[in-house]
Amino acid sequence: MTREFDVIVVGELNVDLIFNQVNGFPEVGKEILSDHMTLTLGSSSAICASNLSSLGLKVAFIGKIGNDIFGQFVIDKLNRSGVDTSMLMIDENLKTGATVALSYGEDRAMITHQGAMSHLGLDDIDEGQLLRGKHLHFSSYFFQPGFKNNVHRLFEMAKNVGITTSLDVQWDPAETWELNLNQVLPFVDVFIPNEVELKKLTGLPNVNRAIESIKNISRFVVVKCGSSGSVMYYDNKEVRLNPFVNKEVVDTIGAGDSFNAGFISKFIKGATPEECQEFGNLIGAISTTQAGGTGAFKNLEGIMEIARNRFNYQE
Ligand SMILES: Nc1ncnc2c1ncn2[C@@H]1O[C@H](COP(=O)(O)OP(=O)(O)OP(=O)(O)O)[C@@H](O)[C@H]1O
Ligand SMILES: [Mg+2]
């Protein structure tokens, strides 16, 4: 058996069509103009996969798209960043998911058609696929109804084939926050929510109490705290780490997915938990130096140059 991939990412795939400099707000029966438009690879899971690959890891993606031009775009973008797409499922009857975002200053109004992403489920994945990797990363639970109430079985499958695992649930657009952490976290090595998500998931108003309520279920609880850095809990100890300060943030899109990529890239190489956390913070901060979630991640050399020049990071 060859573990040909360092990381297998299971998750949602979509394109983002972003309109900038929009002249007003859309209204039924009227038309407005936008001075700029960008079509990019969307989805948290894809940003993480792409950045893991740019960090030099061998990455494969398992996801579902339609047989359409957006699906081709997704495949092309993933391939260009070195992500293996041979396990992607193309469904003739479904459309590739798409988000249209209207950008107003720092905020956005968005509309999403989930399409094929919401049809990926446990039955699409088998042990043979997971056996090809060393680590499973799963993201965006609430955007993938195919895994509702059974995502723990995916993680259990990963554990049965002897690979390590990480989970970032991301936001719940319906704000139900229905996920049984006690069921899934025993199979998760690294649980990586952000602080708001963790509070919502546990129903506790305070991050420390939220961590307290789930500590020791997964091996590592790693909580992302935006411009305050991150907090990690493992082996009965808590490690708070300040961020790498970026005084000129371009945007914070994908900072969390980039943090995941940084943490996981060190984790699968057997680095210490503190090294993983520091590298997560670094890669999260690097993401904020360019537009979008993948803009700063061309290749390892370029990434480490930003690390040295902007953040004084020494390997
Ligand atoms: N303004 C910033 N300056 C420096 N570092 C940052 C900044 N914002 C985020 N980071 C780094 O990136 C990490 C992840 O960011 P954040 O906490 O925003 O994740 P998230 O909420 O999951 O993001 P996402 O919207 O991508 O899902 C932080 O823990 C921090 O280390
Ligand atoms: Mg996030």
From TrEMBL:
<dbReference type="Pfam" id="PF00294">
    <property type="entry name" value="PfkB"/>
</dbReference>
<dbReference type="InterPro" id="IPR029056">
    <property type="entry name" value="Ribokinase-like"/>
</dbReference>
<dbReference type="InterPro" id="IPR011611">
    <property type="entry name" value="PfkB_dom"/>
</dbReference>
<dbReference type="GO" id="GO:0016301">
    <property type="term" value="F:kinase activity"/>
</dbReference>
<dbReference type="InterPro" id="IPR002173">
    <property type="entry name" value="Carboh/pur_kinase_PfkB_CS"/>
</dbReference>
<protein>
    <submittedName>
        <fullName>Sugar or nucleoside kinase, ribokinase family</fullName>
    </submittedName>
</protein>
<keyword id="KW-0808">Transferase</keyword>
<keyword id="KW-0418">Kinase</keyword>
<feature type="domain" description="Carbohydrate kinase PfkB">
    <location>
        <begin position="6"/>
        <end position="294"/>
    </location>
</feature>
